[in-house]
Amino acid sequence: RRKLFTDEEKVLLNRRLPDLEGAASSKWLPLHTLAASGDFYLLDNLLKHKVDVNALDKDGLPAIHKAIISKKHAIINYLLRNSANPSVYDRDGATLMHYAVQTACNQTIKTLLLYNVNINRPDDYGWTPLHLAVQTQRTDIVRLLLLKGADRTLKNQDGLTPLDLCLRLGHDVRTYELIKLLKNFRISKQHNSF
User: Fold this and answer.
1) Which parts are the ANK repeats (predicted)?
2) How many angstroms separate the CA atoms of 35 and 53, rounded?
3) Residue-range domains of the chain with CATH
4) Per-residue pLDDT at 122
5) pTM, to two decimals
6) By the 8 A CB rule, do 132 and 101 touch?
């Protein structure tokens, strides 16, 4: 597997700030590319040169979205520790938590909760992260969200709660498990910790 840069090129890049305009694509900034690729060394170097960690790409997304989509957990942690805005949302109102649920990454969900990302904030269509978890039939993620305080009673624009959505999914074992979980879930204090 070929590396993005040789060791010599990395040393040269470390000596001075690279030409960021030349390194940008038509859609992504260098920071976004490095966040998605998981190249920690170059990302760290770039941030040391005072690059805006919350800069938006052509789609209006900061680099942390790219890291979440690419499941680069170390990069997600690093960006959050370096002032990435955990409350940012995309043009449809989807939060970082929505993206973490869509990628079905428990570790990212737990990390975002440490940064107080609102677990119940709906997108512009009224979909909460819990709605998304139910739609993808991820029982583990539904359970985690419920443990962390997700509200089962919130309705989307179509007036559907996560349980209503679940009832429309079909008649398989996973759907039955989700229905049971949504109807009978009770938070106990011992389960509400990481």
Assistant:
1) 26-58, 59-91, 92-124, 125-157
2) 10
3) 8-85 (1.25.40.20), 87-186 (1.25.40.20)
4) 98
5) 0.82
6) yes
